[in-house]
């Protein structure tokens, strides 16, 4: 997997103090993107699932997959997510795709089996709102994946 960065103890990419893994590669080209240096697919460095597990276990925190858009590496990310779930981690995933698009493709649908909350959709500058929790623009949803299905999206609710 191509990894740009790993930030431990972040509180802006989901509830609690989490380990955020930034995956390289994004083709959405959202105007106003906060991180255009993440767009090249070959940015960052190659890391294995074992290396990432070692880091997340040392941090002993839940995990957020962000970027870039991790979904471009969905097949490679799957073993990492499987192991994180086996260790009982809560996983959030940020993507420029919408939930319905991911559910329509086998590899991303399978990836969602391991995801607790999906923050979906492209960043839209005119819908940018700093007051939104854990997302940049109001079109983006916090999808409670376990309770959602196409045609019936259940949004994640904060309990704080
Ligand atoms: S999906 Fe995210 S990383 Fe990709 S262009 Fe849009 S804002 Fe930037």
From TrEMBL:
InterPro entries: Aldolase_TIM, NrdG, Organic_radical-activating, rSAM, rSAM_sf. Pfam families: Fer4_12. It comes from the Bacteria. Belongs to the organic radical-activating enzymes family. The keyword S-adenosyl-L-methionine applies. SUPFAM superfamilies: Radical SAM enzymes. Gene3D superfamilies: Aldolase class I (3.20.20.70). NCBIfam families: NrdG (TIGR02491). GO terms for molecular function: 4 iron, 4 sulfur cluster binding; [formate-C-acetyltransferase]-activating enzyme activity; metal ion binding; ribonucleoside-diphosphate reductase activity, thioredoxin disulfide as acceptor. It is an enzyme of class 1 (oxidoreductase). Activation of anaerobic ribonucleoside-triphosphate reductase under anaerobic conditions by generation of an organic free radical, using S-adenosylmethionine and reduced flavodoxin as cosubstrates to produce 5'-deoxy-adenosine. This is Anaerobic ribonucleoside-triphosphate reductase-activating protein. Its EC number is 1.97.1.-. Its cofactor is [4Fe-4S] cluster. Keywords: 4Fe-4S, Iron, Iron-sulfur, Metal-binding, Oxidoreductase, S-adenosyl-L-methionine. The gene is nrdG.
């Amino acid at each position: 997997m191509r990894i740009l960065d790993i930030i431990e103890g972040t509180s802006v990419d989901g509830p609690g103090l989490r380990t955020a893994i930034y995956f390289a590669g994004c083709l959405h080209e959202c105007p106003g993107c906060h991180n255009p240096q993440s767009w090249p697919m070959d940015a960052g460095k190659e890391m294995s699932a074992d290396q990432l597990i070692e880091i997340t276990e040392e941090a002993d925190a839940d995990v957020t997959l962000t970027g870039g858009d991790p979904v471009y590496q969905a097949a490679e990310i799957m073993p990492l997510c499987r192991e994180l779930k086996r260790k009982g981690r809560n996983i959030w995933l940020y993507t420029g795709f919408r939930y319905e698009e991911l559910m329509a493709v086998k590899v991303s649908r399978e990836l969602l089996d391991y995801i607790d909350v999906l923050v979906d959709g492209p960043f839209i500058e005119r819908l940018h709102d700093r007051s939104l929790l854990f997302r940049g623009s109001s079109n983006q949803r916090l999808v409670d994946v376990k309770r959602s299905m196409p045609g019936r999206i259940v949004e994640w609710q904060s309990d704080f």
